[in-house]
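Objective 1b of the project was to move from sequence-level analysis to a structural picture of ligand recognition. The entry below was assembled by the postdoctoral researcher (A.K.) and checked by the PI before modelling. It contains the amino acid sequence of the target and the SMILES of the bound compound, zinc ion.
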Amino acid sequence: MNVLLDYQVILLPKKNYWKWVRACSKYVIEFGANLTDDPQSAISYMAPSQVITFPSGVDLFPDHDDVESWLREVAPGVRLDPVAVRSTKELKAALSKRIDDDDRYGQKQKSFYMLWPTDYPVITQAFGANPQIYRRFGMPGHEGLDIRALTNTNVYSCAGGTVYEVHTNPKDHPYGIHVRVRHKDGYRTVYGHLARALVSVGQSIDAGQVLGKADSSGASTAAHLHLTLERDGATARKETKYPKDVLDPTPFMVWPDRSRKKSLPSLTWPAGRCLVGGRTWEKTKLTACDLDLARSADLEAVQIEASESAMNVARLRQIRPGMLIIARLNSDLSGGPVSPGDFVAEIARDLKRMAAAGVNYFEVTSQPNLQSDGWGRSWRSGYEFGEWFQEVLGALRDVEPQVRFGFPGLAQGADVVSWRGDADRFLAEAQAAADASDWIGVSFYGAPPAPNWEKVLTRLLASYDASFPGKLLFLSLDDQEYAGVDPVSRTRSLTALFRRLRNERNLGAAFCYDFAAAHGHDGSESRQAASQSLSAAKALGQRDF
Ligand SMILES: [Zn+2]
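Corresponding predicted holo structure:
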């Protein structure tokens, strides 16, 4: 599993299609790209976040004179990756070289290329778009790329070079506050609509270095980055139809940018190990039986609803004074759209009440890629959720600045229409919001006794670690696997799981003891069954780690 955004589709000629497929097979295994012989499928696949790779030799796509220009026109803003080859043999050789060089998109073979300049891998206005608007500026169309960026988020230099202009007046230029950088071979980049510049004229900067913070200064209606690429003499040499040496940056963009080291706000975990935790099922409160179980199993951490009574929080603390308690902040998101403001108004009282009772960790919403939890209603993608979440996070930090807010665990799995959005894609799209959180929730389906549970879990944790290095994680286990399993072997499996996780890096706690769901989700019946497992819980309580 890979939570980085890498939507690549390889468009191949219809003629001798299977020969072309064979030429790509090693590359596909290495990088996980998709294949198609249908240009329309390539254009719509994960649009506009995909990269379309295709052999660009003449006459390979007889329906189009020049397939590259055709794609540029019908799919503006989509990154194209033409491979200059004429035969299957040449394609195979070119792709082998990319594998050997660890150079997925062949960028290292170009003399000049540009790293992605924001934390958001989305183009909001393509190069050349809206000619009617740009004509009055003497341009045939939009003279750069508009790239998603929220207010005060980082803007990175696309390539190494020297800063030659920093414009600090937000009012007297269409680009507002902007920075201009000169690179090698006469290339220049311009970063517009900033909140502020963080570099000065004459400063030499590296590729990927932060040069400012994004905003909406100048002629702009919403926060984003405007990026222009120019090259000395390009207009005179007819390298471009645009005046003022303006070039289309799209073919130069490296995407996604795996090279950037992210700076993540994170916490050192005081406990220094992964705590043994239990949790209530969604929308249920602790019962006397649950408290008995927590005591018998010697739980070190408990996850509850924020609507839980302060009395029960006190009871948990009686069981174990240092008990880590995480409270889930939820409101009903199954209906029409709920604005960030309405959500905060809904949960603020419980937040204050729980914080007053000494709870320091809060998970904000749960499983937001499920339709029942807001997907398709309050947000339609991870990007939209990320923006919604960041607004909520800002407001919550104003209410309780000292507590730790977590990004919610996602319902694992791929797209299911009218139910769930693909978890990996959702997380990658919402990555900036997860970065901004104090910790991240991870849901795990497939607990023991499910086959391969250890392998699946190891891969899941490794993928979070790759995307969020050093970030504190809390793991929640979906306990449905235990339905029908007798309490003794269930406890044995859980003990093995907790032992496996005890020294897992970055894992603060695992909430694996699902009070009410031990035998399915049905309330009273399952509680009764859970009470029968009290003696089994004692076995967990007698663990030797
Ligand atoms: Zn623009």
